[in-house]
Amino acid sequence: MTSNRAAKRAARIRQAKTGEPYMEARRQSFRAAVQNDPLDGLVALDWEDALMVAGYTSRLSHGLNIAGPTLSPSGEYALFEITRTGVTDVFATVPNNEVTVAAHVGVRRLEVEYASPSRLHIGIPLNPVLRGQRSITDPMVTAPEAAAAVTHVVRDLQSRAGSAQWRPGAAERMVDTPEVAAWVVRFDTPAGPPADWFRDNLAEDLAYELGAEVRVETDGYDAALTIFRDEQDLPDDARQRMHKLGVDDLWRKRWSRAGLTWPTPRPQHNVYEEAALGDATWCRQPFVIRSDMRLHQAFAYESALREQIPAGHFALVPFVGHDGKRHPQALVAAWSDLPLPETSVALPAGGAGNALLWALDAMLKKAVLDHGIVTYDAVAVETNDDGWALKIRLHDRSSSDAFDVHRLEAVGVTGVTRTDDANVVVVQFAGPAAQPS
Predict the structure, then answer these.
(1) Is the distance from CB of 41 to CB of 34 less than 8 angstroms?
(2) What range defines the domain where residue 189 resides?
(3) For residue 31, what pLDDT is reported?
(4) What pLDDT, in 10s, does the model give residues 52-87?
(5) Residue 20 is assigned to a structural domain of this protein
(6) For residue 94, is pLDDT > 50?
(7) What is the pLDDT of residues 245-263, one digit of tens each?
(8) What pLDDT was estimated at residue 343?
(9) Last residue in a domain, options 336, 359, 378
(10) Are residues 271 and 227 in the same domain?
(11) Measured in whole angstroms, how far is the alpha carbon of residue 168 from the centre of its chain?
């Protein structure tokens, strides 16, 4: 049994770890491994240690022989045979109480059969999660079954990655309703990979193998894996925490794939904004970059980020505080789920507020970049009889003279007005009423 598992593991490790062939192999390997070797799905992974520590076999601690496991004829149990050297009556030394035995081993049910006075057969049920009989978020799954399933997959992923393995802890039920379960499974990590390394490299595979959402948190040498079906299933405080962790994970992957590796810019959840303009939803996610980095370096990753984000429009822009000043270490990812209209005339009538400000700003920036002129920040937008007036603040010693209405009329600009503040300009955009009938 051991050699068979080692051979399978070696074969999986030999797979090239890049490209679609590897990913396809990963998709198939887990279920295939359990189907081909059902004994991989033991409820109690460290069953021998569990028996000994629990005291179940304390009176057999010397000269104990445990053979197995073998698969039961029904395919539901892993069978072990216990004998003791020099003892002819094992039955007399083992408590005749199956409920106590099951509690010690940490499983819901246990089959105990006395084959002879000197031989004891124990059947430990195979894990229903690993065998594909139940989802890990099924409320019928027990805490030991959940802990064993998660530990099994975690250890398998760590073995494939060639890393040391975490020591498993208990599984705590975060949600316990007749419809769904959610779990927190804790691990001790002094000899294994740091939790942030596991999160960045293996958590996505873990979520795939378990068929559930996974979030990884760390506290010193302790790692906590939260496993759930959907954020909406969680209590309010846990839902908010898991959502933030999910956003962190998503953007960490995006920045890394774009080429900006650890430490990646950190999302600032408390200043995230979202607003609607017609059928489009506009979003702005601010980030803080690491202290040794300059903003222009982070902006260089805009095109690589744009390729990853399923958005109609995407851009990186400076973060401007309430005082109108740019933050030296912050920027904003701004996007819309629908394509940006070519001109302000195509924007929905009655548009107002932040979403309108962001849309007009995106149109003007596109035109400005096309002509290689001025750097600015959008400050405010007002509705008037002619459409919308966008107030902008110029930066980098730019001059309002650089704005040529004829260059910008393609995006709906009809006029540019200077103000008493030499750094502030009002750009007039045509509204939907200006559209020819």
Answers:
(1) yes
(2) 143-240
(3) 37
(4) 433 344 444 445 566 766 766 666 666 667 666 555
(5) no
(6) no
(7) 999 999 999 999 999 887 8
(8) 92
(9) 336
(10) no
(11) 21
Residue 429 main-chain phi, psi, to 5 deg: -110, 140
- d(C-alpha 377, C-alpha 326), whole Å: 9
Q: Give the pLDDT of residue 312.
A: 84
Phi, psi of 152 (to 5 degrees): -60, -50
How far is the first Cα of the chain from the last one, in angstroms, to the nearest whole number? 78
Checking if the pLDDT of 391 tops 50, the result is yes
Q: Per the structure, how many domains does the chain have?
A: 4
Q: What tokens were used for 374?
A: 């001025």
Torsion (CA) 31, 32, 36, 41 in degrees, nearest 10: -20
Structure-block tokens of residue 107:
């499983």
Token pair of 206 as six digits? 């873990």
DSSP state, residue 159: H
d(CA 43, CA 170): 13
User: Would residue 200 count as lying in a domain?
Assistant: yes
**Co-location of 349 and 372 in the same domain:** yes
Is residue 233 within 8 A of residue 204, CB to CB? The reply is no
pTM of the model: 0.70
In a domain, 8, yes or no: no
Give Cβ neighbours of residue 259 (< 8 Å, ≥ 6 apart): 301, 304
Of 99, 125, 151, the last residue of a domain is 125
Written as six digits, the tokens of 147 are: 């802990």
Q: What distances in angstroms separate CA 140 from CA 175, 202, 252, 435, 437, one per listed residue?
A: 12, 27, 35, 61, 63
